[in-house]
Design a protein that fits this description.
Number of helices: 14
Radius of gyration: 21 Å
Helix content: 25-40%
Shape: globular
Distance between the termini: 25 Å
Order of helices and strands: HEHHHEHEHHEEEEEHEHEHEEEEHEHHHE
CATH class: Alpha Beta
Number of strands: 16
C-alpha cells in the first residue's frame, strides 16, 4: 500500500491517456444526461471500471506490479501463492480431487505459482479454471501460464461466465470483492442521502447527493451504529448475489477469499466518518474517484459480515475468518522461508514475508475467509486464529 496524496498532485497523463480518459468522461456525461442529471455512484463505477474498451478493468494498460497502479500479494511474492496452494491441496485431498476456479487472475502469477506448488505437493487439480472479464489480462495470463511445463499449462482453461455445472474443489478470489461496484451514502442536514455523480457547468464531474430512496434508508437504519451528524461511507449490495453465485458454482469444497476489509461493526464505526473509498494511480493512493476516469482503480474495503451473511443464506458454512498474517502462518510461510537454499535467498524471502505479514503492511488490513460445503475438517490456514465471533 502507498501513502495517500491529493488527486491534484497525481502524475501528468500522456497524450494517449488524456484521449482515453476524455472518451470515458464523454460516456459518463451521456449516462448522467440519460439518467436525468444525476447518476448513482455504482452506475458511475460500471462505466469507469467495466465499460467494454473504456473501463479501467476492461481496457488495455498495465495495472499490477511496478509498472502499474498497485501491487497485490501474489505480485509481491510467490510465498503467498504457495500458501494458497497448500490450502487448496488440503481441500482437494479431502474432496478426492476436483478443480480450482480462480476469479480475476490478474497477470496469472498466482495461478502459475500455485500450479507448480500443487504439482510438487502431488495435488494437481483436474482443471484450473480462470474467470477473467478483461481481454488484456487474459492475454497476459495466457503468456504467463503458457510458459509452464505443458502438463501444467494444459490444465488451465478460461471462462467468460461461471461454469454451468457445479465443481468439486476450490473457488479462489484474491482482491475481487473490493472491485465490485458499490454505493455511497452520506448523512448531513439530519437526513440520509445517496451520493452520485453530476456534470458541472464546465463539463467536469462532481459529487452530488439526492435524498436516499426508501430501500436505501431501510438498509442504512439496519447498519446505523451511532453515526455522527456528518458521515460518509459505502455499501455493496452486489456482494450478496455474488456470493450466492459462487455458492451455486460449488458442489463440494470451499470458497477462499482474501481481501482488505473489516467486520461490519468496525467498518461502520462512527469514528470512520469518511468511509473507506480508495483510488490507486501509479502507486499513489487518494480519495478522488472522479479524476482520471477510466485510468485509475476505485475500490472500497470489504464488509466481511455481509459476505458471511450471504454465505449462510446460500447454505455455505463460514468455516474460518482470520487476518492474512494468520492465514499465511497457518499454511507454512515461515517453514518455506527457513528452507531457502541459501542465506541470500532466505534474506530475500524474509523481506517478502514481512511485506505480507506485518501489521503496517498487508498482514492485518487484509483478511482471509473461507466458506465450505460438504467438508468437515479444520483447515490449516485458519488454525492459528478464529475471528468469526467478530463477524
Amino acid at each position: 500500500m502507498t501513502s495517500e496524496v491529493d488527486g491534484s498532485t497525481l502524475p501528468a497523463l500522456s497524450a494517449q491517456e488524456l484521449l482515453h480518459s476524455a472518451a470515458v468522461l464523454a460516456a459518463v456525461r451521456d449516462a448522467v444526461a440519460a439518467a436525468g442529471g444525476w447518476l448513482a455512484f455504482d452506475d458511475y463505477l460500471r462505466i469507469a471500471l467495466y465499460a467494454p474498451g473504456l473501463g479501467y478493468y476492461s481496457a488495455d494498460g498495465a495495472k499490477f506490479g511496478a509498472g502499474g497502479d498497485f501491487v497485490t500479494a501474489p505480485e509481491i511474492s510467490n510465498l503467498f501463492s504457495h500458501c494458497v496452494a497448500r490450502q487448496c491441496a488440503e481441500i482437494l485431498t479431502a474432496t478426492g480431487g476436483g478443480s480450482v476456479l480462480e476469479l480475476g487472475a490478474g497477470t496469472g502469477r498466482m495461478a502459475a505459482a500455485a500450479l507448480l506448488a500443487l504439482d510438487r505437493l502431488g495435488a494437481l487439480p483436474e482443471r484450473y479454471w480462470i474467470l477473467e472479464v478483461s481481454a488484456e489480462l487474459r492475454a497476459r495470463q495466457r503468456a504467463t501460464l503458457g510458459a509452464l511445463p505443458s502438463a501444467l499449462a494444459q490444465r488451465v482453461c478460461w471462462l467468460e461466465t461461471l461454469p454451468d455445472t457445479p465443481i468439486h474443489g476450490v473457488v479462489l478470489a484474491n482482491e475481487v470483492a473490493d472491485a465490485l461496484p458499490f454505493q455511497r451514502f452520506a448523512i448531513h442536514s439530519g437526513r440520509f442521502w445517496e451520493r452520485g455523480v453530476a456534470v458541472s457547468d464546465d463539463g467536469g464531474l462532481l459529487e452530488a447527493d439526492r435524498a436516499a430512496p426508501a430501500s436505501l434508508v431501510r438498509e442504512l437504519e439496519r447498519l446505523r451504529a451511532g453515526w455522527p451528524a456528518s458521515y460518509v461511507s459505502e455499501l455493496c449490495p452486489l456482494q450478496g448475489p455474488w456470493i450466492a453465485s459462487l455458492a451455486a458454482t460449488l458442489a463440494r469444497g470451499a470458497v477462499l477469499l482474501t481481501d482488505y476489509g473489516l467486520p461490519r461493526r468496525d467498518y461502520y464505526d462512527p469514528r470512520r466518518a469518511h468511509g473507506t473509498l480508495r483510488c490507486h494511480f501509479r502507486h499513489r493512493a487518494h480519495e478522488d474517484p472522479l479524476c482520471n476516469p477510466g485510468l485509475q482503480d476505485i475500490t472500497a474495503w470489504v464488509d466481511f459480515t455481509r459476505l458471511a451473511e450471504a454465505a449462510a443464506d446460500a447454505q455455505l458454512e463460514v468455516a474460518g475468518y482470520c487476518t492474512q498474517a494468520a492465514f499465511l502462518l497457518g499454511t507454512g510461510i515461515e517453514a518455506e522461508v527457513a528452507a531457502a537454499a541459501s542465506d541470500v535467498q532466505r534474506s530475500r524471502l524474509a523481506a517478502q514475508a514481512r511485506a505480507l505479514l506485518m501489521p503496517e503492511e498487508m498482514g492485518e488490513h487484509f483478511k482471509a475467509i473461507v466458506f465450505t460445503r460438504g467438508l468437515d475438517l479444520p483447515l490449516q490456514g485458519f488454525r492459528h486464529q478464529d475471528l468469526r465471533h467478530a463477524l
